[in-house]
Amino acid sequence: MVLRKAGTAAAATGVVLAGFVGLVTFGTYAASGTPQHQGSRAALSAGTVPAAYQGLIQEWGSLCPEISPPMLAAQLYQESGFDPSARSPAKAYGMAQFLESTWATYGVDANKDGKKDIWDPADAIASAATYDCALAREVSKVPGDGQANLLAAYNAGPYAVIKYGGVPPYAETQGYVRNISTLARSFTAPTAAVEVSQQAAGAIYFAQNVLGTPYLWGGEGLPSQGGRFDCSGLTQAAYASVGITLPRVANDQWYAGPHPSRDQLRPGDLVFWATDLNDPRSIHHVGIYVGGGYMIDAPHTGAVIRYDKIDTKEYIGATRVTSDGANALPVRGADGSITGSGGPGAGGQAPAGTPAATPAASPPARAAAAAGSGQTPAKT
């Protein structure tokens, strides 16, 4: 979609390319921090959760030591994209994708309206945390990391975790634990400088080589499209050139890594715009930061891929792309619905409460557990 009211950045086209290359080289390879460690009471990163749910997730994400607000947010995003009306063919409902039988046991009337409503976001968020903590208690005597064991129990069932004395040797369960743990880092407010991406320079090199290419809505650079791109098609192709597979739309790319502040931006970071700065589901544009307050982007129909300023209206923030972060993102179908988890061998996850004591019994339920869309499949 269009970059709303962005400047034409005519001045930027006159910037000496070598200057940008220098910024890229320095910004990409200079040491600027260490990886973040997710604490059990970590705060949510700004702009990662719709404002209407942020307080609830922060509150209920502290229900027991084995969960955290970022981990709970990652689960809800993975399940439904924060869509309270999500429903799956497996008859899992609401933001947390509960089966009705499990809801009957773990449903919570969090807003005290006298009804445990599977479709109500407040009740769903509280119930997801309650269910997580119940699983944590069931596997509390198992050695190892309590949060990892809880996530494994969520995916494979507590019996499997107890049987194997930790995360069971199922590729799907190990993938789920890895993906949620990784995705949680995207929801965690940084407390120190964010580690620099080593692939950033290559992604920018790709984008620089297509400067001047006309914009095409839905464009992915295919020969049949004349090598043209839209905004997220460009960022997807740029990172594909360095071996990182990003989702197709901008508001999914937002979660492909941690979120540096404006003063911590480095060349190669993805920069985003949203119509509602309190709701990441409204993200509509993305570009690749190159330094000096500029990005390379595919702005809108009638424009070409070019340098644009980033300090404009509707700027919501940035993402430092990582391979693990991209792999952890949910896989979406053509209609925008979540069809599984990202990453090699990850598979999907069961609706809350699906019996999954053995890997042989669980895949059909998990395959059917396509959650709701989080956003429309419009190319951006």
Q: What do you see in this structure?
A:
With 380 residues, the chain is of the alpha+beta class. Helix content is 34%, strand content 10%. The strands form 3 sheets. The chain has a 5-stranded antiparallel sheet. Strands 1-2 form a two-stranded antiparallel sheet. The chain has a two-stranded antiparallel ribbon with strand order 8-9. α2 (51-60) crosses α3 (69-80), α3 (69-80) packs across α8 (171-186) and α6 (146-156) crosses α8 (171-186). The model is unreliable at 1-40, 343-348 and 355-380 (pLDDT under 50).
Brief digest:
The protein has 380 residues and is an alpha+beta fold. The chain has helices at residues 17-29, 51-60, 69-80, 100-106, 121-138, 146-156, 158-164, 171-186, 200-208, 231-240, 250-253, 323-327, 363-368, and strands at 92-93, 98-99, 270-274, 283-291, 294-297, 306-309, 315-319, 330-332, 338-341.
Range of helix content: 25-40%
What's the number of extended β-strand segments? 9
Low-confidence stretches: 1-40, 343-348, 355-380
State the assembly state of the protein chains: single chain
Estimated structural class:
alpha+beta
Query: Biggest sheet: strands side by side, in what order?
Result: 6-5-4-3-7
Compressed to H and E, one letter per element, the order equals HHHEEHHHHHHHHEEEEEHEEH
Overall morphology: elongated
CA gyration radius, whole angstroms:
21 Å
Average pLDDT reading: 82
Tally of helical runs: 13
The biggest beta sheet is recorded as: 5 strands, antiparallel
Question: Kindly, what is the distance between the CA atoms of the first and last residues, rounded to a whole number of angstroms?
Answer: 5 Å
- Strand fraction equals 5-15%
